[in-house]
Write a structure and sequence with these properties.
With 70 residues, the chain is an alpha+beta fold. The protein is 53% helix and 36% strand. It has a two-stranded antiparallel sheet with strand order 1-2.
């Protein structure tokens, strides 16, 4: 359980620092037999740093609970 709580805490830390993920999809613009023109279209996934802080808090609470069980 300690490992899971540390992973959750580190995930929250990363989500606090990095607040956007960008990925690209490719779509056809023109298709003329052997000639094909494609366009890369960016997509962004954004979240607030507050979400990362909340996840860090959950990870800290989980770690604290496992520490008190011993």
């Amino acid at each position: 359980m300690k490992k899971i709580s540390l992973v959750v805490f580190l995930l929250g830390l990363v989500m606090t620092v990095i607040t956007t993920i960008t990925f690209f999809t490719s779509e056809k613009v023109v298709d003329l037999g052997k000639i094909e023109i494609r366009k890369d279209k960016p997509h962004h996934i954004k979240w607030s740093p507050v979400v990362g802080i909340a996840i860090m808090g959950i990870g800290g609470i989980l770690y604290w609970q496992t520490f008190n069980e011993q």
